Amino acid sequence: xxxxxxxxxxxxxxxxxxxxxxxxxxxxxxxxxxxxxxxxxxxxxxxxxxxxxxxxxxxxxxxxxxxxxxxxxxxxxxxxxxxxxxxxxxxxxxxxxxxxxxxxxxxxxxxxxxxxxxxxxxxxxxxxxxxxxxxxxxxxxxxxxxxxxxxxxxxxxxxxxxxxxxxxxxxxxxxxxxxxxxxxxxxxxxxxxxxxxxxxxxxxxxxxxxxxxxxxxxxxxxxxxxxxxxxxxxxxxxxxxxxxxxxxxxxxxxxxxxxxxxxxxxxxxxxxxxxxxxxxxxxxxxxxxxxxxxxxxxxxxxxxxxxxxxxxxxxxxxxxxxxxxxxxxxxxxxxxxxxxxxxxxxxxxxxxxxxxxxxxxxxxxxxxxxxxxxxxxxxxxxxxxxxxxxxxxxxxxxxxxxxxxxxxxxxxxxxxxxxxxxxxxxxxxxxxxxxxxxxxxxxxxxxxxxxxxxxxxxxxx
Length: 461
Description:
Layout: E1 2-7, H1 16-27, E2 32-37, H2 42-47, H3 49-61, E3 64-70, H4 78-89, E4 100-107, H5 112-125, E5 129-137, H6 144-163, E6 197-201, H7 207-217, E7 225-228, H8 244-247, H9 258-266, E8 271-279, E9 282-283, H10 285-293, E10 307-313, H11 320-333, E11 336-342, H12 348-367, H13 376-390, H14 398-406, H15 417-429, H16 433-457
Parallel strand pairs: 1-2, 1-3, 3-4, 4-5, 6-7, 6-8, 8-10, 10-11
Antiparallel strand pairs: 8-9
Helix pairs in contact: 4-10, 11-13
Domain NADPH-dependent FMN reductase-like: 1-108
Pfam family, one: FMN_red
GO molecular function: oxidoreductase activity
């Protein structure tokens, strides 16, 4: 069989992900795995009609497609996403229809599920036969048990093609028709109270998005700055070189305007509103390039303490995966997510009211410096970074290591000596049946709330 491997790494053949593909090829010599470097060649693919058509021809002639990619900031690389946009924009979905496909992803397991879900949904939209996914840590190839499991995954994929198995659809088609939003309702103006507000958009071509942004800006007494990402001189997306790991210096430093924009506009803002249009299951590849390029800050939060909100045109409520990506991004950044405003309403007046309430809440919460506690999305994500930076990837990410020490990110539980001593005593006591019965039957519930009751009852707090 001939399998087309769509490589999502900007590093091309020398990517970690492709080492797994090379290993698969070595073990399944009877099949041909043709690697096409999508992310590395995206400029050529987009500009050169023949280059794009050659890839589509390969997909048509192939027996299957493997989407192989490294994780980049909660999902795939922006260049990979741009290729997906081109598939739909150039109406070549039929080349993918009916093809058996699987996903091979590499990462440190930081939100690998959202990247996989995104590609899975795209495969379903393309009417492909989605077989399965295999998510790997960057260096899992060193582990014999993982290698064996990987080969089982690949064999299952080949068997599915050979036997034309029926595959499951995990995502339903998006059904979206919106009203033409025209602001109708006028509210009292809101004073920004010396707060710096920045709106960042990927385009103003979508009339609904433009009108929502205009309405939001008009909610305030003062002028609100709007930045269009297309107006910023940005040479390209993240190239995965990791030069930033040493001291946050990017390979693009002094070569374009992105870093200056990020540092001067966003890091100095009190309130940031991201505005964009849903394009094929996520915000646009222009937005994705923004998130990828923001990685010059590596794994160190750079927007901590800010109020963040989203104005989105499109069926966000039908895309919980995309919503989770954006929510997770704000939690990891240490920002407070105020909310999402979309054009998924029956009337313009409803949108007007939502935008005004959104504007009011942004100012109010910024004034009192409010931040919600993080959920699993922020807590678990940061613990993965903590452990990885402490361990195997401390080099090359020296800047992260220094920042994590300064920010007390290295809060390993084993440093809590009081808990260790108490746990040791209680574990020893529980070995005696009468004591164990007393603890679990009569003491457990009241013991759990005892330290909290003391705080509640203490009038000095």
